[in-house]
């Protein structure tokens, strides 16, 4: 029986990345709080949030369905930068990222009726020093409030600011698709069924 994949995310970036695999999927959204215990660190936060989101879908899943949930965080100098609450916080985040190296960590959960697999990927991102004018331009013309760390790698600030990435570019965009593809095979995904 072919696997029916559900993407439980509003992220246009995750939709775009997953579409690139040519695996059919549907999008289902539930409003799930993105809270975590303060003692959690780095990948523990991302994995916890991905698993927490998936738990909201478990009782609704059909026998042939797999739900994919994900959460991306930015980790800088032993602190997490999630989505900024307003433009002032977005500016502060970009100023902190400017001239520094940070990690982008995406936690992913694949959940079926029978099993659950939670995993993560880490990419190291090197930012050059950004001018205040560049940051202000980005804040004025783009949408930083729906992104961890207040930036999109595929947008202006990523294009002009990122000097290099160690690890997966797609992970920085919001989904380590190479890992998702491999793990989906364990849930019965077969290229013949695509």
CATH architecture: Alpha-Beta Complex
CATH class: Alpha Beta
| CATH fold-level label | Maf protein
Measured on Cα atoms, how large is the radius of gyration?
Answer: 17 Å
Quickly give the structural class: alpha/beta
Structural domain count:
1
Give the topology string: H per helix, E per strand. EHEHEEHEEHHEHH
Count of separate DSSP helical elements: 7
Shape: elongated
Number of strands: 7
Q: Main sheet? A: 7 strands, mixed
N-end to C-end Cα span: 12 Å
Q: What proportion of the residues form beta strands (DSSP E)?
A: 25-35%
Query: Which spans of ≥5 residues are poorly predicted at pLDDT below 50?
Result: none
The mean pLDDT is 93
- Indicate the percent of residues in helices: 25-40%
Family: Belongs to the Maf family. YhdE subfamily.
Protein name: dTTP/UTP pyrophosphatase
Catalytic activity: UTP + H2O = UMP + diphosphate + H(+); dTTP + H2O = dTMP + diphosphate + H(+)
Keywords: Cytoplasm, Hydrolase, Nucleotide metabolism
Task: Describe the overall structure.
The radius of gyration is 17 Å and the shape is elongated. Helix 3 (87-97) crosses helix 4. The chain has 194 residues and is of the alpha/beta class. The chain has a single domain, classed as Maf protein. The chain has helices at residues 12-19, 42-55, 87-97, 132-141, 156-161, 169-173, 177-185, and strands at residues 4-7, 25-27, 65-76, 79-81, 101-111, 116-127, 162-166. Strands 1, 2, 3, 4, 5, 6 and 7 form a 7-stranded mixed sheet that branches. It contains 7 helices and 7 strands; from the N terminus they run βαβαββαββααβαα. It is 32% helix and 26% strand. The longest helix has 14 residues, at 42-55.
